[in-house]
Design brief:
25 strands; mainly beta; globular; 314 residues; five-stranded antiparallel β-sheet; nine-stranded antiparallel β-sheet
């Protein structure tokens, strides 16, 4: 017997199905574990906080930051103001996040999902970034453009179709990207870092990404998910990972490209890490169903899950 739960007000493009099992043994096993949505959100937030890179610089001097993965950020002298446009002087605090791999995308819930008209579609990423500058705890903004140089090798090499996207956190706590034409961005060899790169001049802090939409020309479809009893959109997360495009990870609510070969991944929080299941890669078909069961889920530390996602066969 299956109990269908429509979550159209929460995730408008998917349907979750909560599955009751009439076998007493299986039902007893399912009831032994109940996912906790608050714990999952806290785990995502903690993982994001753990990859922040921080430093301090003099706002009156040119500032060049080179990240752990070789990303270059340049903020020019005297280009910082408070949110009310009051000029800022003296030292300021710089905070930077970079995400290149889909394992970290999953662990932090920072998927590559883009707004395409009224739909949400899967993106391939050249790197996800977050910038924050503050002084004495007060958030600041740039009064002129700043620069980011992103090594293309971090996401498998140069892709000339990449464009600039800005990100916002939606009402469900998910990161949604939207194509941003208000900046100068180009792809190609960058002499400063002596390699292929994506280079952009930006005028706002916050989330920024180099992306392109994944389109095989076959159209798109919704996916229905059957979850273990007690699992739902508020206490678990489902992700899609392309078998052939490793720099991409989408949440379950996107319209999936028909014909793309995808892994489907269910995660919940468990003992400070994840309980998760990965379905073997399968090609997306019209109005397809994906079924998860509790016995196929396994426990993993944060790093174990990151490695499992990054090492999916291609």
């Amino acid at each position: 017997m299956k109990k269908i739960v429509h979550l159209l007000l929460i995730l408008p493009l998917i349907t979750f199905v909560s599955c009751n099992n009439d076998d007493n043994g299986n039902l007893e096993n399912e009831q032994q574990f109940q996912p906790n949505g608050i714990a999952l959100k806290s785990l995502f937030a903690s993982n994001l906080n753990n990859i922040k890179q921080q430093t301090t610089f003099d706002s009156g001097q040119n500032f060049v930051f080179v990240s752990e993965k070789g990303t270059v950020v340049k903020i020019f002298a005297n280009c910082m103001t408070k949110l009310d446009d009051t000029p800022v002087t003296g030292n300021v605090d710089f905070e930077f996040i970079e995400i290149y791999d889909r394992g970290t995308m999953l662990a932090t819930n920072k998927a590559t999902v883009g707004k395409f008209g009224t739909e949400k579609r899967m993106l391939a990423s050249g790197g996800e970034f977050h910038f924050k500058v503050s002084q004495n705890g007060e958030t600041l903004k740039p009064s002129c453009h700043f620069q980011i140089i992103t090594p293309a090798i971090n996401t498998g090499g140069l892709d000339s179709e990449m464009q600039g996207f800005v990100g916002t956190i939606d009402e469900n706590g998910n990161l949604l990207w939207e194509n941003f034409t208000g900046q100068e961005m180009w792809s190609g060899f960058n002499q400063e870092i002596n390699q292929d790169a994506y280079t952009a001049f930006l005028n706002n802090f916050g989330w920024y990404n180099h992306d392109r939409f994944i389109d095989l020309g076959n159209g798109y479809t919704d996916v229905t998910y059957v979850l273990p009893q007690g699992f739902n959109a508020s206490n678990s997360s489902i992700f899609m990972a392309s078998k052939t495009i490793p720099n991409s990870l989408a949440n379950a609510y996107v319209r999936a490209p028909i014909g793309l070969e995808l892994y489907y991944i269910l995660v919940v929080e468990s003992n400070g890490g994840f309980k998760y299941a990965i379905k073997p890669a399968q090609f997306v078909t019209q109005n397809m169903n994906v079924v998860f069961t509790l016995p196929e889920m396994q426990n993993g530390s944060i790093q174990q899950v990151i490695d499992a996602i990054n090492n999916l066969p291609q």
